[in-house]
Amino acid sequence: MITDGSQVSIEYTLKLDDGTEVDSNVGKDPLVYTHGGGQILPALEKELGGLAIDDSKSVKLSAEDGYGVIDPEAYREVEIEQVPEEARKVGALLMAGNNEGDQRPIRVHEVQTEKVVLDFNHPLAGHSLNFTVKVLAVE
């Protein structure tokens, strides 16, 4: 049974409310995490507590419990020259790193004549998340 400190292996599929599949590891390597270690979304982790090997569960997380709501302060305008030419189109994804080496996606929100508006919100911010999870192993 999954308790704090358990090493858990799961397979999952993540869909949006419109049925769009965002991610899945079914048929691939399992996602392995330490329960209670803050390695997956806290609200999802809470829902998996108490499950056992071969248990399956569908979990719907609100935007607030997932990657948050859209933050209107997370948009930045930059000079068009700062964006690679091939990424100067709405919806293009760029990767930005911080001093710790963490990478995060940034989406092009708007392209103007001399400026580009970048969206620093997580790509799944503002979306409810629908997980289907199967527990493969608990150690």
Taking the alpha carbons of the first and last residues, their distance comes to 9 Å
Tell me the structural class. mainly beta
Q: Helical element count?
A: 1
Number of strands: 9
* CATH topology term of the largest domain: Chitinase A, domain 3
Number of domains: 2
Taken in chain order, the helices and strands follow as EEEHEEEEEE
Outline type: elongated
The CATH architecture of the largest domain can be given as Roll
What is the CATH class name of the largest domain? Alpha Beta
Can you summarize the main beta sheet? Answer: 5 strands, antiparallel
**Mean pLDDT across all amino acids:** 95
Sheet-strand content, in percent, reads: 35-45%
Report helical residue fraction.
under 10%
Features:
about 140 residues, mainly beta, Chitinase A, domain 3, Thrombin, subunit H, four-stranded antiparallel sheet, 9 strands
Structure characterization notes:
The chain has 139 residues and is mainly beta. The chain has two domains: 7-67 and 125-138, Chitinase A, domain 3, CATH 3.10.50.40; 72-119, Thrombin, subunit H (Beta Barrel), CATH 2.40.10.330. It is 5% helix and 41% strand. It is built from one helix and nine strands; from the N terminus they run βββαββββββ. It has one helix at residues 42-48, and strands spanning 7-15, 21-24, 31-34, 56-61, 75-79, 93-97, 103-111, 115-119, 129-138. Strands 1, 2, 3, 4 and 9 form a five-stranded antiparallel beta sheet that branches. Strands 5-8-7-6 form a four-stranded antiparallel beta sheet, with no helix packed on it. Strand 7 (103-111) and strand 8 (115-119) form a beta hairpin.
